[in-house]
Design brief:
Layout: H1 10-22, H2 26-31, E1 40-42, E2 48-50, H3 52-65, E3 68-79, E4 83-94, E5 101-113, E6 116-126, H4 129-137
Parallel strand pairs: 1-6
Antiparallel strand pairs: 1-2, 3-4, 4-5, 5-6
């Protein structure tokens, strides 16, 4: 797939990703991804997909089965001059069902190259609220 969009920031690439999901458009979605055979997507089912074709086909399948709306809330962002990592919490809305699904913990990794910022890794997993509460209860002391 020939990529024509240029994203000046990782946030712009991320917005393009979520806009494409909102429009159920796999071609548009793939514009946010890097042109690299090692791009990686892990869906909440645990399936790990590597490369443009498997990732595109997985999103095509998702879009064919249901209209999906994702509400993404940023949790933490780290950025250097060429790599950015975004951790988010996603809430999913499927079709016309007003009841949310999730939440999901999502990590996006972006790299800056000649064509701007592109997504190279997306990892999504179901949030485990019970274990999350336990982790947050542990005191954080820096020695």
């Amino acid at each position: 797939m020939s990529q024509s969009a240029a994203y000046a920031t990782p946030e712009a690439a991320e917005q393009a990703f979520y806009d494409a999901v909102a429009h159920c458009d796999a071609d548009l979605l793939m514009l946010a991804w890097a042109e690299d055979e090692e791009i990686l997507c892990v869906h909440p089912t645990g399936v790990r997909l590597t490369g443009e074709i498997p990732i595109r086909e997985s999103w095509l399948s998702i879009f064919q089965n249901a209209r999906l709306r994702i509400q993404a809330e940023p949790v933490a962002h780290w950025q250097s001059s060429v790599v950015a990592v975004h951790h988010l919490t996603e809430t999913l809305f499927v079709g016309d069902d007003p009841n949310p699904q999730g939440p999901l913990h999502v990590t996006h990794v972006y790299m800056r190259g000649p064509q701007g910022w592109r997504l190279v890794v997306r990892h999504a997993s179901a949030a485990d609220d019970e274990h999350q509460a336990m982790a947050e209860a542990i005191p954080h002391t820096i020695h």
